[in-house]
Protein 1
Amino acid sequence: MAYQITLIPGDGIGPEVIKEAVRVLETVGDTFGHQFDFEEVLVGGCAYDATGEPLPRESLDSCQKSDAVLLGAVGGEKWDGLPGHQRPEAALLGLRKGLGLYANLRPAILHESLKNACPLRSDIVGEGIDICIVRELMGGIYFGEKGRRTNNDDMGEEAFDVEAYSVGEVERIGRLAFEMALKRDRKVTSVDKANVLESSRLWRSVMIEIAKDYPEVTLEHMYVDNAAMQLIRNPRQFDVLVTTNMFGDILSDEASMITGSIGMLPSASLGEGKFGMYEPIHGSAPDIAGQDKANPIATILSAAMMLRISFDLENEAKEIEEAVTRVLEGGYRTPDIMSDGCKLVGTAEMGNLIIQAMSFE
Ligand code: NAD
């Protein structure tokens, strides 16, 4: 079977980590007899430099025609001074809108062998952490009405960003979270700020309605300030955590830190059907770009999520994930996850080790 994959290497370390993920996918393709056809497109700062736009029309077209998209990272200081709509990060919002990606799935898993990299006490971590954060991606304050205005007071110019959610928007993300919970430990924690925000009160009432269709799943509600605290105090209480665009942005980064390194965590952005965009949660890490220091594991695990979710290739996805675990158990580490007694390797060598560790029995 042939699969069309659009590759967005992007900026900074993006091209380095995408290169390793592609090598892993090619190895999987050769071994299992799948054909992965890659098309590479420009998005982000590199696209702005080449075309004057961070998301050129032909790049979006390629993504829309493909079965899945694999993205490295975009952005960097060089483009920080540009107006908002020309900045590389605007391309990410454009991709989400253009591809109808309304849900972001971020598994936050603490690998047994990386327990030392976790900043929490070992009694809090216990036997490990495994949280699935489901973040709404196409609504809320990031996409709401925004602007500047001058009021008739002496406080000067005012800026505003509107947080708005419709029943339909909450319902589709809510259902996705409950479906995820059915495949896991059957608990959904819905995070909001219903004591203050009207949009959160609507969010909460929709979640309560959806829960009636999933009697096997336990629903609990948590205010976002408490959730930020509970992730540190007792992260093992969470199974699936579903929340709004902005709260999810913040909480998923917090969850990534308690699992060790930002270089380890994959993510999937999903819409209707099987199509998805897969990317590591980290940014373009300009401080280490081009130095063979980037950890490619988050991107390689994103490729595994793509095989599982978009292509239904469960065995192939597991093969990659188990190879990563074996390499970590073997003591190999990129600089971001290095600890005493381990063997330091670069980006390309980490890719080689993961390819060698795939057993293909
Ligand atoms: P970042 O994630 O790029 O880097 C934060 C820190 O983590 C840095 O010290 C970096 O060296 C380290 N790091 C990140 N990924 C790593 C990896 N794979 N291996 C080893 N170390 C890694 O976040 P930032 O510094 O806030 O942002 C840099 C740029 O990336 C900015 O322009 C930002 O807008 C952009 N950004 C892009 C995305 C995206 O493309 N999805 C996401 C976040 C930030």
Protein 2
Amino acid sequence: MIFPDYRPRRLRQNEAFRRMIRETKLSVDDLILPLFAISGKGVKNPIESMPGQYQLSVDNLVKTSKEAFELGVPAVILFGIPHNKDPLATRAYAKDGIVQKATRALKEKLPDLAVITDVCLCQYTDHGHCGVIDGHNIDNDASLDLLARTALSHAEAGADMVAPSDMMDGRVAEIRNILDENDFNNLPILSYAAKYCSAYYGPFRDAADSAPKFGDRRTYQMDPANALEAIREVTMDIEEGADIIMVKPALAYLDIICRIREETDLPVAAYNVSGEYSMIKAAAEKGWLDGKKVMMETLTAIKRAGADLILTYFAIEAAKELN
Ligand code: PBG
Ligand code: ZN
């Protein structure tokens, strides 16, 4: 394959050829839309650091989900913003919690839309950590039961899939157990298996009001410098019963997505997180780059790296481009 015998430009000379040899094809089927549920009616609070994203009361959340579903997006993932917080994250596993309510409404109005629920405690604890605390220590084992109860209450509300994002050790097994004991053995777990301690979550913490009140998440989320450890985390979650494996964030971690893709034959998801969204939005607002083109290039790159599924705040916008 040496010039002039081989000329790579031959197959790039027109759109028909380019389409024919395109290796990665992004589809609406790959997209999952994250949504923030808040109590009230008619509420649509803009999230300042995430242009185009809102805290939505259940009625508006159903509307946005309907728009996404009609554009072909198969699933949403729900995050809740509770009206009160306490040390034990009581509102995370309350029957009438905000995610439970939103799930029930969605399953009633849009039964064919898959509802995935984020399972974590940080939006619900008064200290903002993803587990319960003992002094300044995040108590792993004491958090497992609350996480499992949260997952079960989402299942009882009608969730189609649960997605633990807390990064406590052993939580996938704990959740699998409680689901199986309660006749939810058919409910899949999407595990945030390789979740890094990332500054790219900044805008999300404004959106979900979930910033830790002391310290940071480095004792449970992964060190961004580590790749082999991601393989250990993924292997562990698969053994514990995860059905889909997630890498998060996506963009600065394309190498991790690629390695995990080779490591497992389970479906791999990647979370195109809030900071990745906001960077593109901010630069586009300034006219520094073409927001739509960068969005499509970014999502295609995440898929090319090996992700089957992409959680992205761009889901609706990208679906419009793909339709
Ligand atoms: C909470 C959670 C976070 C995100 C998803 N679930 C934030 C965090 O871990 O602090 C981040 C999502 C995003 O940035 O878009 N466990
Ligand atoms: Zn959390």
